[in-house]
Amino acid sequence: MAAVDYHSKDFDWADLREEIEKDPSFHYHLAPFDPSSSSSTSDSEAWRTFHRRHSTGRFFKERRYLLNEFPDLVDRAGRIGSTKVLEVGCGNGSTALPFLRAKEDIIVYACDCSMEALDMAKKMIDAADKPSIKNRFHTFLLDFSENEFPKWLFCHSCRSTQMPKQIYYSDVMKTELKLNSSSLSERTECCISGFDFVSMIFTLSAVSFQKMPFVIKECFSILKPGGLLLFRDYGLYDMSMLRFPSNQRTGFREYMRSDGTLSYFFSLDVTRDLFLNVGFLEMELEYCCIRSLNRNSRKNMRRVWIHGKFQKPI
């Protein structure tokens, strides 16, 4: 029960909305936005610069709470062979590591637009206290906001069947999977048969709103039938949204930080439309309203996140 309370029950989102919408100082967040004033800065290039700047040390802590928020990952693991997870926008590996710790048969593939981020993720996984974790973590470089996922993840032939054939690799092939997609395609005519889970943890908000349908459609395409997409991101009226000044708006509910990275704040309706429009089924969708204390300023912070779980139809 403690995990559930932490998950979403610290305060009521409807009360927060009423308070914000009645406060004149926040009205610019609700105003229509003129697209002509939007910046053309590349989402991915800003994040590559961000990761180069933070290439030493851990900028994000390990997200151990995710196993409580998404118990399906542990519950399904081991039922039929290995469980394959794709972490989209892996950053420094803070999401992948708790997944890998959960069970020995969970294999995580992780992509990011930044090579610096992938290097940090590898270092974080290598430093884990379980030697077997390193062998179950595979990274590849991809600007997923602009490019399709490589065919070696889930080829068109396997996608067209309801029950994709399980491919068993030798030790040599398992080692080869650590390399990039071009080396894999030279050694096999098939693929790794898609994924049981795709995780997007504070990733989609970093992509411009216009590109989000493309990214979600790609995630849908590489999931196995019945597979789940695990989603967690910034929610509407989160504390960080209210801190943005009006001149940093780049769209409706979309903002640009001083370093050029984007941040979008999701409502339930927008999130539902984005995922259902590409074919997902809604399994869970709610606001997570979490109150925390800033230890330096002693101020209470009201954080709002979106929690979602979506399934590819069988």
UniProtKB/TrEMBL annotation:
Pfam families: Methyltransf_23
Protein's GO biological process: methylation
Domain of life: Eukaryota
Enzyme Commission code(s) on record: 2.1.1.-
Keywords noted in UniProt: Methyltransferase, Transferase
Family: Belongs to the methyltransferase superfamily. METL family.
Function: S-adenosyl-L-methionine-dependent methyltransferase.
Protein name (record): tRNA N(3)-methylcytidine methyltransferase
Provenance organism: Zostera marina
Taxonomic lineage of the native organism: Eukaryota, Viridiplantae, Streptophyta, Embryophyta, Tracheophyta
